[in-house]
Write a structure and sequence with these properties.
16 helices; 18 strands; Amidase signature (AS) enzymes; single chain
Length: about 500
């Protein structure tokens, strides 16, 4: 193992960390902003519960902002009619007046990722095959959000069937980065990430197989959290699914609150910022040159790590003892096999013509794999899990950049080259996220700041399987020692 101590650029910080989940009515009323969309989700929840803001006022504020900016950013799709949404908000106010408080999302607007079903709202999955599909019942995840009191205003944009980290599709077009709408918001939860970064949504749900919660988090300067894979699934931990649903938020506290709402597994109730004084973090960087990174990403990441070290954590550069070519083989093989269920659409000429080229490639690759390939992929994955277990015996967290490139033009399907190195598949440029995905690990994207062009970037911080509370409490501490989340974009109207 290659190892060196990561030195902080500044002295250790003495921090008094506090985490107010609730605000007093008096304190809140005194600090009420003129624009309700500027409130965090928890603050908004408090305002509604304490009747400092009505659900109608909240809905109108968000609709006004959406109408003003969504035409430029294209985060929210299938937006429902204003009159209907305001009528639902009025009912929510009446319920509250009668003492019927539904939950922390009472009367709050919400848009679900367009890869999950919301009753009565188009469920396209970004595919022409499903442009007219309207479900008559909610998915289990959506039902939990609705039961917490949310009002569904529409969907968030996603690439076709969630393939690729660029949120464009033939129905709704491309979603722009919150900090520059000419650049991509990432994906596949790109509409969710942009919706948060532009304050068009209080919180957002998404899903993640290959960085789909983390990448949009980094590209829009918000929090994206991929839970341990048993948190969102009733399945046993073994084998750990490659994909999971999860929350996004404008800060870690909001993200936690949404996770508590959507999680199948109880993740606990009380969360406090983690003391970093005795924590050890392994910085993986570019895996000793294995990964190509766009210039500037390493510098931003290590500057953020200096802040973490300054708060007392021991940060060391570490190279895992693993052949990462084998890990990539494991990933691509298992991913291909996971797309084999789409073969029926491939076999039908009428639907094959409607499939994204990347999906066609995934299906074709799935058909040439052998049982030997499957066995070898699972064996490599097992070796990686053992290496992760070894690393977590020495370190509390593993850290690595969230993405290998900064947000790029949304007219580009995917980066074909990074730092002079050719990307040989449509997702090779996203390889940096598979370490957490193959481990089924809890991973939080935290912001790392901006480059000279104002493009955001983030860091993935991974914890051991099942240590979701610890990772989220790291996020709370990180929010306290950095100010990146306070740097909001200069919005552009249509």
């Amino acid at each position: 193992m290659k190892r060196r101590t990561f030195l902080a650029n500044s002295g250790k910080l003495s921090l008094a960390l506090s985490f107010p989940y609730t605000l007093s009515k008096q304190a809140f009323a005194a600090s009420m902003p003129s624009d309700l969309t500027a409130l965090t989700a928890i603050e908004l929840s408090t305002a509604i519960r304490e009747k400092e803001a009505s659900c109608v006022e909240v809905m109108q504020a968000y609709l006004d902002r959406i109408h003003k900016y969504n035409g430029t950013y294209n985060a929210i799709v299938s937006l429902q009619a204003d009159d209907d949404l305001l009528a639902q908000a009025k009912v929510a106010d009446e319920e509250l007046a009668n003492g019927n408080y539904l939950g922390w999302m009472h009367g709050m607007p919400h848009a679900a990722k367009d890869l999950t079903a919301v009753r009565g709202i188009p469920y396209t999955s970004g595919s022409l095959m499903y442009r007219d599909r309207i479900p008559d019942q909610d998915s289990a995840l959506v039902a939990r959000i609705r039961n917490a009191g949310a009002i569904f205003i529409g969907k968030t944009n996603t690439p076709e069937f969630g393939l690729g980290s660029q949120s464009y599709n033939p129905i709704f077009g491309a979603t722009g980065c919150a900090y520059n709408p000419e650049l991509t918001s990432g994906g596949s939860s790109g509409g969710a990430g942009c919706g948060l970064g532009t304050q068009l949504l209080p919180v957002a749900d998404g899903s993640d197989m290959m960085g789909s919660l983390r990448n949009p988090g980094a590209f829009n300067n918000v929090i994206g959290y991929r839970p341990s894979t048993d948190v969102m699934s009733a399945r046993n931990a073994d084998p750990r699914p490659l994909s999971t649903s999860g929350p996004m938020g404008r800060n870690t506290a909001d993200t936690i609150e949404l996770l508590k709402t959507i999680a199948v597994k109880d993740i606990g109730d009380s969360f406090n910022p983690l003391s970093l004084a005795d924590k050890k973090i392994a910085w993986l960087g570019d895996l000793d040159g294995y990964l190509a990174l766009e210039e500037g990403i390493t510098q931003l990441s290590e500057s953020s790590l200096s802040m973490i070290a300054g708060a007392g954590a021991a940060v060391e550069s570490v190279m895992p003892d693993f052949n990462f070519d084998n890990l990539w083989f494991s990933w691509t093989t298992l991913r291909h096999l996971g797309r084999a269920n789409m073969k029926r659409f491939y076999d039908d000429p009428a639907t094959r013509d409607l499939l994204k080229a990347e999906m066609i490639w995934e299906i074709e690759q799935s058909q040439i794999l052998t049982e030997g390939d499957r066995a070898r992929a699972n064996a490599y994955r097992g070796e990686w899990l053992r290496e992760l277990n070894r690393l977590f015996l020495q370190y509390d967290f593993l850290a690595i950049p969230t993405a290998q490139v900064f947000p790029y033009p949304k007219t580009t399907s995917w980066p074909t080259e990074i730092a002079g190195r050719e990307m040989d598949t449509y997702h090779r440029w996203m390889e940096i996220v598979i370490l957490g995905s193959l481990g089924g690990l809890p991973v939080i994207n935290v912001p790392a700041g901006f480059d000279e062009q104002g493009r955001p970037m983030g860091i993935q911080v991974m914890g051991n399987f099942g240590e979701d509370k610890k990772v989220l409490e790291f996020g709370l501490a990180y929010d306290q020692i950095t100010d990146f989340l306070n740097q909001r974009p200069q919005m552009r109207e249509v």
